[in-house]
Amino acid sequence: MKTKPKTRKSVLKRFKITKTGKVLRRLAGQMHYRAKNTGKNRRNLRRLREMSPEEAKKIKKSLTY
Question: What is the CATH number of the domain that holds 16?
Fold first, then answer.
């Protein structure tokens, strides 16, 4: 009997796949040293961004289900 491929849980927690198949990611620089950033910059960091098609392909491969 063949074993089932496992989903990489770390990838599952970090990325979101939309209904149309786009891969969304969070931006870096949100954990600490945020006092020196402007409010506008901090708000922009909260948004999810779409990944490039090449990188999205790699992410989808590691998310089997």
Answer: 4.10.410.60
Q: Is 58 contained in some domain? A: yes
Which stretches of 1-65 are DSSP H helices? 9-14, 39-46, 53-62
Total structural domains within the chain:
1
Q: Kindly indicate the confidence band of residue 5, based on its pLDDT and cuts at 50, 70 and 90.
A: confident
Domain with 53, as residue range(s), is 9-62
- 7 phi and psi, to 5 degrees? -75, 135
The residues with which 25 forms a beta bridge, in sequence order, are 15, 49
Residue 65 in this model has a pLDDT that exceeds 80: no
Q: How far apart are CA 17 and CA 15, in angstroms?
A: 7
pLDDT digits (tens, 9 = 90+) for 10-43: 998 999 999 999 999 999 988 898 899 999 999 9
